[in-house]
Amino acid sequence: MGKKKESPKTKEHSTLESNSLFTDFDIHLFKTGKHFKLYEKMGSHVTTMNGKKGTYFAVWAPNARAVSVIGNFNGWNNGKHTLSPRWDESGIWEGFFTDIQKGEAYKYAIHSNTGDYLEKADPFATFAEVPPKTASIVWETNYTWKDKKWLEKRKSEAGKAKPYSVYELHIGSWRRKLEDGNRSLSYGELATELVEYVKEMGFTHVEFLPVMEHPFFGSWGYQVTGYYAPSSRYGAPEDFMYLVDCLHQAGIGVILDWVPSHFPGDDHGLYKFDGTHLYEHEDPRKGFHPDWKSYIFNYGRDEVRSILISNAIYWLDRFHIDGLRVDAVASMLYLDYSRKEGEWIPNQYGGRENIESIVFLKEFNEQVYSQFPDIITIAEESTAWPGVSRPTYLGGLGFGQKWMMGWMHDTLHYFQNDPVHRKYHQNEITFSIMYAFTENFMLPLSHDEVVHGKGSLMGRMPGDEWRRFANLRLLFGYMYTHPGTKLLFMGGEFGQTSEWNHDHSLDWHLLQYAPHKGVRSLMKDLNTLYKQEPALYKYAFEERGFEWVDYSDHQNSVMIYQRKADEKDELLLVICNFTPQTMAQYRIGVPYRGQWKEIFNSDDLKYGGSGAINQGKLHTSPIKYHNRDYSVALTLPPLGITVIKLEQEEAEFDIGS
């Protein structure tokens, strides 16, 4: 019998296989939605194939009739550097060119089956031109990390209770060089100035508003076109790696805002990428977001899920990121989010839940935690959806933490009341404990609270200047002693008085004034207190870490609670006075007799307060109070918070017995 003649398809397969980064197994995983490291295959890669150095390109465009790479290297001529479609019906087009090297700007020229001609940036590009230019750049990062100690520590502490004191910031407006045209700092400059500042302030983490490439600066990064590229406005990918590295070496974790909920309709972006609704739903009732005039990912499409989860893994893998805060989760969970009747399509069971999105979020968390069990995922979710921060095997979405939006709304609303009226709103400030342990909550005073006409946090505080500052200090003290982790947007830590403007620097000049210095000093001490006292973080998400002493003194607008760890000498008593009246000899019940000591008081002179502090020892008396056998009498500072701690337990009745 003669040798069987090889089919043309098999020949093509053999030829293309030698110039491809994909294996058959890669394609299988991609088509079934299970490839979570697509960044190793898709996009542009400077590499060597068959002994020749060049650049390999791969792009997903299943409804294209022809695809080519265009750039300065071919005069932006779409007739050259053509890509070939794979034979496996994956929709991937690929090619290898020896005359395209690192640093070249490029786009994909796509002739669609719909008859459209499109020029698109590479969805997997790791670097892009500085906006308003929109081309991708061939790039291979080359960076040597020096954060081994940090990563080892992160791994050894995985699963352990620890403080999260997060400083949220927008890279482009944190600090600007006014003498240099009001320009933003570069990643390299931030690696010195930001790292020094955050370390001095004592925050445990920074959270960057989205760093992924975005064409419109005014979107603050939330309208992403380049999901795999840190914004080139501030430097190259290696420069951002250096910033992360320096933060880690200073003992500071890095959390990134991640936006898998929607994307903009810019011509060079993901919208109608191959002439069809490839990434987004075709039906606008599922695919268009009315709030942000943007487009919603089709989470039911296997390839889209692979691309998005690969993107999350990419930042954790290549950039050593310590956590992802997922934006607008509520908009992903509900099919009728911001939609009127008739503007949305129910799921197959007739409900409003977005089942495809729920499956995606669960798989995202499962994959992220399986590969990086020592990182954190955080959901910005504003509804009462159950189990957001519960494991998927228990029916939850699998996030590590969830923003406590209810606490934020109730707290700010309460503080806006003139103190004379607060006695009528005591339930607002105490209500959060009713549900504080239903999720792993993070308390957010975020960028959303200082924009769109809301003014600054300081601007919401009532009264004259002294009272506004005292209220702000009280707010921060209450936040840091309330169960849950903490997040504060930049500027709040020194009492910024104007609303945040992304086109301008923070008002650093305010620090020449004593009241603003005082607020910043208070924030530094709160971060220190938070990290030093296990009672404030060990059981942040559990009822055993909190106990009411008295929430019923609404006439005086006073609230008293305990924060607890495991030992008696770790227990803290927190007393909040939400009125401007100093209250002398205010008696509170304590669980142990002995000597108590004030370890924090927001009215301290060094913070700009009036100095109504409790000096020396606070000795217990055998006077029953608040259902406890012993009590102490102390001074409550005006619009202030005081924290006391058992210094020495006594076996015998002490002074006052």
Describe the 3D structure.
The protein has 14 helices and 30 strands. By secondary structure, it is of the alpha/beta class. The chain folds into 3 domains: 125 residues, Immunoglobulin-like, CATH 2.60.40; 370 residues, Alpha-Beta Barrel (TIM Barrel); 107 residues, Immunoglobulin-like (Sandwich), CATH 2.60.40.1180. Helix 13 packs parallel to helix 14. The longest helix is centred in the C-terminal third of the chain and has 19 residues. The termini are far apart.
What would a concise description of this structure say?
The chain is an alpha/beta fold.
Give the terminus-to-terminus CA distance: 110 Å
Work out the count of structural domains: 3
Poorly predicted runs: 1-15, 652-657
Task: Output the radius of gyration.
Answer: 28 Å
The profile of the biggest β sheet is:
8 strands, parallel, barrel
Indicate the proportion of strand residues.
15-25%
How many helices? 14
Please, what is the oligomeric state? Answer: single chain
CATH class of the largest domain: Alpha Beta
Helix content: 10-25%
Strand order of the largest sheet: 9-12-15-18-19-20-21-22
> For the record, what is the CATH homologous superfamily label of the largest domain?
Glycosidases
CATH topology of the largest domain: TIM Barrel
| Mean of all residue-level pLDDT scores | 94
Number of strand elements: 30
CATH architecture of the largest domain: Alpha-Beta Barrel
- How would you describe the shape? elongated
Query: Which structural class matches the secondary elements?
Result: alpha/beta
